[in-house]
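Shipment paperwork, digital attachment
Item: protein structure file
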Amino acid sequence: MARRKAAARRRRSPQGIKLLNVAEGFVQANILTSTLMDVNPIQFIMGDSGPSFLASGGAISLLEIARRPELLQTIGQRAMDPNNIVQMAVSSALANVGFKFAKRALRRPVNLINRQVFKPLALGVKL
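Attachment content:
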């Protein structure tokens, strides 16, 4: 008699937020916004409405794009500049490689912090 097929094990997707992945995303967003719009991601989203130390001082923010759509042409011109493309590509690749090596090198301390600090607090956050 033929063996029955075992039920496939269901994998659960991770439910928590990983802070290192959030930091990596912020670095990648910073590369794009600083090159194309001369601001960091927080200044891009908040614009001049944020705290006074975040005032953009003439740089392009999301609110300014909504008010003046012709700024999209300026952003497009900056995005098509070969120097900016090379700068963004190299910076993005270096950031990606740096985070990959840092995650691997710091695997044990990160696991220790996750196990001894974040797991008992049950915040749904990991390092």
